[in-house]
Amino acid sequence: MNAEIKPAQGKLGVLTVGLGAVSTTFIAGVISIRNGTDLPIGSYSQLGTIRLGKRTEKRHPLVRDFVPLADLKDIAFGAWDIFEDNAYESAIHAGVLDEYRHLHRIKAELEKIKPMKAVFNPNYVKKLHGEYVKNIDNKWDQAQALREDIRNFMRENDCSRAVMIWCASTEVYIEPGAVHETLEAFEKGLKENNPSISPSMIYAYASIMERVPFSNGAPNLACDCHALEELANKMNVPIAGKDFKTGQTLMKTILAPGLKARSLGIRGWFSTNILGNRDGEVLDDPESFKTKEVSKLSVLENILEPERHPELYKELYHKVRINYYPPHGDNKESWDNIDITGWLGYQMQIKINFLCRDSILAAPVVLDLALFLDLAQRSNMSGIQEWLSFYFKSPQTAKGLPPQHDIFKQLMKLENTLRHLKGEDLITHLGLDYYQEFIEA
Ligand SMILES: NC(=O)c1ccc[n+]([C@@H]2O[C@H](COP(=O)([O-])OP(=O)(O)OC[C@H]3O[C@@H](n4cnc5c(N)ncnc54)[C@H](O)[C@@H]3O)[C@@H](O)[C@H]2O)c1
């Protein structure tokens, strides 16, 4: 298929829910990159290349030259937060980017990005006390107010399109229930102030209603429920979630497929983290941590498939801990101890000590998601965008479909989707055909 992809004309509004560490690192990063002072390191959409055709054809364009993505110069930034700090103040508070190396020289631009008043519910984020919130009690009315914010933002910033990305705090763990099952039940629930509808769902609803693609960077449900999937399909809007894949889980989904590929057994995988930013503080609440834990635990089981390989993985003991440790700030430190089994049952251990910077890893993910969701919208793709699983710890899938966690399969799916959109051959890596050509030559 060579899909009709509408050109990326005009400005793209990137609206983040939350103007905290991840959002400000993303915004300040994009501004620095378009000013020419920095490179978009970590962004596949900006630095990645894609092979087209046979290996022998030597066609490897940059992804951004191959598919028509929005130019970074055409992005306008908007956000909501429960604190009134502008993007400069918030970035200083987050302490991720160096004040003199990065923030000071783009201070004027960052100061112009002021959050809109949030839709917030302290029952869903117990560690924070929002001050800068909409004074509206009814959830339906809150959704209408967010829709108005989106329209106002797009008009004031002269945007032809927008995307919304949840970069706000992790909400407490809830299971989808009857109110999340159908669009009708959900809209009734909004009007009746159903307590099971969280702020992230209200933002997602407002976004989709405005035909603005929605993505969820945290592990709470947001658009990951049937009602909002139904809405996304009805409105012809792409959605994707959930929980940005960075840090420890990124490492896990790189390493586990490799160990499995070599049929090495794994008896235990113990993962622990310390981090001290506001995200860490929110995750210190057991109910928010539960949401994160569920998201982090699902990964290994899916990659290793213990039911298919009981001799290698049936004993697997997987444990994940996150501890709030303020002195480390955004510089998360994680330790993994992996007990693996080799030939004739001999035991070995792998130790990983990753001193990462959470928001430095998450910022390019926000950029790629914004650009690819906008591409999806212009390519007339709607509903769950499973080809963006590459970016998530808990990829959202259609009911009954298991998610794909293996990062290499995720990348193949992403690349093949881009080839498919442009009418290029999908790549199977078989290569037998051109071996024959080489032999005959
Ligand atoms: N950094 C990473 O590597 C990473 C990876 C995966 C997921 N995440 C998730 O991304 C999210 C953002 O992380 P962060 O480090 O920027 O956190 P942060 O605490 O610095 O920023 C979150 C912001 O959201 C605001 N907020 C909370 N509820 C809100 C609401 N209802 N409406 C508007 N704003 C609201 C908070 O005031 C805060 O400023 C978290 O949920 C985190 O779990 C981060």
Q: What does this protein look like?
A:
With 441 residues, the chain is an alpha/beta fold. It has two domains: 11-244 and 359-421, 3-Layer(aba) Sandwich (Rossmann fold); 247-355, Dihydrodipicolinate Reductase, domain 2, CATH 3.30.360. It is 40% helix and 16% strand. A seven-stranded parallel β-sheet has the order 3-2-1-4-5-6-11, with helices on both faces. It has a four-stranded mixed β-sheet with strand order 8-7-9-10. A hairpin with a 5-residue loop joins strand 9 (333-341) and strand 10 (347-355). It is globular. 46% of the residues are buried. The structure holds nicotinamide-adenine-dinucleotide. Nicotinamide-adenine-dinucleotide binds at residues 17-23, 80-83, 94, 118-120, 125, 128, 167-170, 199, 217-218, 243-244, 246-247, 277-279, 358-359, 361-362.
Secondary structure topology:
Elements lengths: L10 E7 L3 H14 L9 H4 L15 H4 L8 E7 L5 H8 L4 H5 L3 H5 L4 E2 L21 H18 L2 E8 L16 H9 L7 H11 L4 E3 L9 H10 L2 E4 L5 H15 L3 E11 L2 H6 L2 H19 L5 H4 L3 E8 L8 E9 L5 E9 L2 H21 L4 E2 L22 H15 L10 H9 L1
Parallel strand pairs: 1-2, 1-4, 2-3, 4-5, 5-6, 6-11, 7-8
Antiparallel strand pairs: 7-9, 9-10
Task: List its traits.
17 helices; seven-stranded parallel sheet; Dihydrodipicolinate Reductase, domain 2; 441 residues; binds nicotinamide-adenine-dinucleotide; 11 strands; Rossmann fold; 40% helix; single chain; four-stranded mixed sheet; alpha/beta; globular
Q: What count of structural domains?
A: 2
Unique bound compounds: nicotinamide-adenine-dinucleotide
- Assembly of the depicted chains: single chain
The count of β-strands is 11
Return Rg in Å.
Answer: 22 Å
Count of DSSP H/I helices:
17
